[in-house]
Amino acid sequence: MPPAFELTKPTLDVGVVAHDVDGMRAFYGEVLGLELAPSIPVAGGEVAVHRVGTSTVKLWCLETPPPRGDGGVDAAIGYRLLTLMVPDLDGVLARAESAGISGIERTTFGEGTGAVPLAFLSDVDGNALELVGLPGMEPMLQVGLTVGNVERTRKFFVDALGLTPQPEVRFDDPAFGEVVSHSVDFGATVMKYWERGGDLPVQTGPISDRAGIRYVTVHVSSVADAVSTLEKKGVAIAMPPTELGTATIAFVADPDGNWFELIQR
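^ that's the sequence the OP posted. Answer follows.
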């Protein structure tokens, strides 16, 4: 099935709304060491843009921050995990420990000489992070969602968006327990999703409702065409195409209510 839109940038961006604005600025800039790009003014504050290879983490720093969300993969349905591939994992963890970040879990993916070092921790606001040590490689990111129903989410990604699914991966995670992870390739960005059982609260919807990992940004050739195609496939349109300076943006939502920003420049 062909994709529902044409990407003009191969990777996605991620929007994170801060509760502890000063602490989150310091964490993403100084602890993680992400390069700071020019900020974006928004009503009631600004978005601090941090580069991760060809992606960005867009940190919303509002004068009146929204309430803190529940952190952790098992706490709620929504965007729950930000994975960062970093060239100097030991350096990042040393800075995190110096900054007083506790609860860091070190492990590996795989065994023997091919094992990849991993670390799980939370940022200042409690958002779950997975850090992958890949020396010599350009930084990149992945996004993880806890969903209400994996089959429903798979149909959204594959049938509605036309994305390519990958084989499921099963592993025991020291921080989250047993995980059956599903994923799709969204351009060159991997989006992972899983169910965690129980009646979890739903923490999705409009960006500024609460702090946390709130949305991803997809750069497309035509927002109007993408919205028209997705609407015909029954995808919820959270915000219709809107002119914003030199850009056109819109928001669509997955079956759990997670927001996806479409942007055309």
